[in-house]
Structures are given as C-alpha cells and as structure tokens.
C-alpha cells in the first residue's frame, strides 16, 4: 500500500514538470521529440545526420540522456547544433524535471525543434511523460523483428518508428513485413520509416516529416 | 524519506529470495548464470547454440524473462532443453522471487547448469541480485564499442562478457581493442569472449569455460 502511495507521489511530481515543459513548448511553438530505443540502435547517428540534412532549414537542439559520459553530446555539437548532456548516474530513464532543467541550458528561443535522446533502454523510458510533443521509437535491424511483440509499450505509444540499419537487411534474419505488421497491430496510426542513417537511405522521408511537423507547430 | 524506506523494504524482500536461490543452487551443486544485455544482442541464439554444442556433456535448463511473449522459451525448447518462461508484464527486470518460482518449474535435480536470460535491458537488471552464481554480459558489435563506458554497471559486475556478432565487424565501426580496454578498466578479472553465435566462431572457448565452471561447482 505504502509502495503505491509513494510511486503515485513520484509520478505526480513528474507530471507537474511534464506540464511545465508542455506549456514552455506551446509558448515557443516548437515541437519536442523524445527518442527511445535499445542501446546502440543508432539514435545519435540518426540525430547527427538529420541535423546536417536540415541545416539552414530547421534549427535543432538536442538534450542527451546517458547514464555516464558526454560522448553523445560531443557528437551532436560536432554538427554545429547545441546539445546539453544529462548524466543520470545509474537511472534508467530521463525525468521531466531533468528535461525542464535542460530547456534552460539550451537556446530554445532560437530553435525550431528539440530532440530528447533518452537513455538507451527499450523498456523504462516509454512510461515516463516528459511533456514531449511525441515519442519516437527506433528499432535497428540487427536487434531482430521480434522486438515490437516483445517490448510493446514504446511501439504502442510512438508517433513514428524508425527501422534503422536497413543496410544490414541482407545479413540479418529480419522480416520487414512482419515487423511492420506487429507495430501496426499495436498502433495503427504510427508512421514507419525504413532508414539507414549510415548510408542515408530513407532519411529524406523522415526529414520531410520533421519539417512538416515543425511548420505545423509554428502556426498552431 | 518514505521512498527510501519503501525501496529498502523491496530490496530486503528480494534479498531473502536471492539467499534462498543461492542455498538451493549450493545444495544441488549447479551454477546458475544470469545473462544480461540490450534487446537483440543475441542472448537466445547464444544459449540455443551453447545447448546444442554441449548436448550429451552438460544438461542445461533455461529461465526466460520477457515482458511479453514466450518466443524465447519456444526457441530454447526446440533444442530439447527445458525452459520456463516468465512474463514480467511491463517490469524491466526479473526478481529473485520470480527465479525462485521458476526453479520449481524446471527439473533442476537433473541439470548441470541453469541459465537465466533476463529481460533485454542493459541498465536495470544489473543491480538486481537473483542469487545467481555469476552475471554474464553480452554486447553485440552493431551496438557500438562505446557501450561499456556508457553503461558501466553490468560490465563492472559480470564474470564474463561475450562480444557477439563478430561476423559483422567489417560492417560496423567497432574497435575491439577499445571495447576490451574499456571493459577491463571497469573489471580487471573479467573473462572476455569474442564470438559469433551465428557462425560458431569463438564459441568453443565459451563452451569450455562453461564446462569447467560446471565441473568445478560439482566438487566444491
């Protein structure tokens, strides 16, 4: 009983910060996308390539969540975009309070879009409301086509899924049609992009989707 | 304050079951290995190939932990080995109580070795004592060589690390020496195996290590 009460309190505190974040984003009229995946699915590479492709069109900032190191923020900064690194020191996902703090550290007033790269974890971040505009899931081909069925939470909640590393399709036993069907069974309105951040394959559709989202948010 | 008290209670309850599991394994004189990794690193394939390679030498049983589905238990049973599937229904790691329950469902008296395949998650399972003999980490090449530095907890605690999917080394930017150095910096006594469960490369050394562990546990 006590456990339930305490968990409820923690979630209420998180929700307060999530609401603040939503208000902040609404005031600035910019979308914020919370990117969630297993470790090593290619989140940082996708973000770095997206920033480069949209340079001069959409100004992007990134909040990087990692347990340790600032490797990912360094990779983002190398593209010229602003990035703020949060180290969770063991915690398995970012909280809305951490994102709220990071918003203050980024030049958000000058940005058109903010990405949150969550801690690499296909489970825990999916249940946490950060006040984001939408959640984005990344699934990489070497992880296997059974992951949507085995880890349904994030695939049910994502506005878009990027199936990354399609350059490895011939080497992995990955059935694209099965993965897509399993994702759509969980979430019939989700947008699915087949991409290789490495080769650039499929990235244009994703970049167009982001541009449209950014433009739409500006006029609402 | 209340949060700390409650978390302590939960951990004490887990420790009681972990101790029961340790006593059970000591009575049977069999090792139990808790295999931890990101989703899609190849845990199930490693276990299936290990079972096949050691057939007639070491009798292996498997406790499968997944959020949803019994896909992995089915894959293990296809090798002829007994497997018990636990569905955590959203929880991000197995608990000692779940493992205790699963020991009852497997023919442990007839086994030489039990594997626990934990939920695919490089973060949360590493802090949880299941009463296992040792933790085993799996890192797959497509995940990237920066993972030991970014997710140090499991690499610090593992008795052995399998770097899997080395058949993809030429296609991924993965520096084996860097990964090994980062792992050894965290854990100087760890045993590192370079393997491809798919091609069989390097699996013999791992199988020999398991056989020695099983034999050693029998006479202690």
Question: Summarize this, please?
Answer:
By secondary structure, chain A is an alpha/beta fold. In chain A, 42% of the residues lie in helices and 18% in strands. The radius of gyration of chain A is 17 Å and the shape is globular.
Largest interface: A-B, 38 and 38 residues
What is the N-to-C succession of helices and strands of chain A? HEHEHEHEEHHEHEH
Write the CATH architecture name of chain A. Answer: 3-Layer(aba) Sandwich
Q: How many angstroms does the end-to-end distance of chain A come to?
A: 43 Å
Shape of chain A: globular
Write the layout of secondary structure elements.
Two copies of one chain form a homodimer.
Chain A (H helix, E strand, L loop, with lengths): L1 H27 L3 E6 L5 H11 L6 E7 L4 H7 L5 E5 L8 H10 L7 E5 L16 E7 L6 H4 L1 H6 L2 E5 L11 H11 L4 E4 L8 H17 L1
Parallel strand pairs in A: 1-4, 1-5, 2-3, 2-4, 5-6, 6-7
Please tell me about this protein's structure.
- The structure is a homodimer of 220-residue chains.
- The first copy, chain A, has a seven-stranded parallel beta sheet, with helices on both faces.
- In chain A, strand 2, helix 3 and strand 3 (83-87) form a beta-alpha-beta unit.
- Chain A has helices at residues 2-28, 43-53, 71-77, 96-105, 147-150, 152-157, 176-186, 203-219; strands at residues 32-37, 60-66, 83-87, 113-117, 134-140, 160-164, 191-194.
- The first copy, chain A, has one domain: Rossmann fold.
- Chain A has eight helices and seven strands.
- The N and C termini of chain A lie far apart (43 Å).
- Chain A is of the alpha/beta class and 220 residues long.
- The interface between A and B is large, with 38 and 38 residues.
């Amino acid at each position: 009983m006590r456990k339930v009460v305490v968990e409820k309190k923690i979630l209420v505190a998180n929700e307060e910060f999530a609401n603040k974040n939503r208000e902040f984003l609404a005031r600035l009229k910019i979308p914020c996308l919370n990117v969630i995946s297993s470790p090593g699915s290619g989140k940082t590479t996708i973000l770095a390539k997206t920033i480069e492709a949209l340079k001069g069109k959409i100004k992007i900032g990134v909040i990087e969540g990692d347990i340790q190191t600032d490797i990912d923020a360094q990779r983002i900064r190398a593209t010229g975009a602003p990035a703020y690194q949060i180290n969770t020191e063991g915690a398995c996902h970012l909280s809305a309070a951490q994102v709220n703090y990071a918003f203050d550290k980024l030049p958000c007033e000058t940005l058109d879009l903010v990405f949150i790269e969550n801690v690499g974890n296909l489970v825990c971040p999916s249940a946490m409301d950060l006040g984001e505009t939408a959640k984005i899931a990344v699934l990489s081909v070497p992880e296997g086509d059974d992951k949507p069925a085995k880890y349904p939470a994030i695939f049910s909640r994502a506005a878009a899924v990027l199936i990354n590393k399609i350059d490895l399709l011939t080497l992995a036993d990955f059935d694209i049609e099965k993965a897509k069907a399993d994702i759509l069974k969980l979430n019939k309105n989700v947008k699915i992009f087949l991409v290789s951040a490495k080769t650039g394959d499929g990235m244009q559709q994703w970049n167009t989707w982001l541009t449209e989202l950014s433009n739409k948010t500006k006029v609402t």
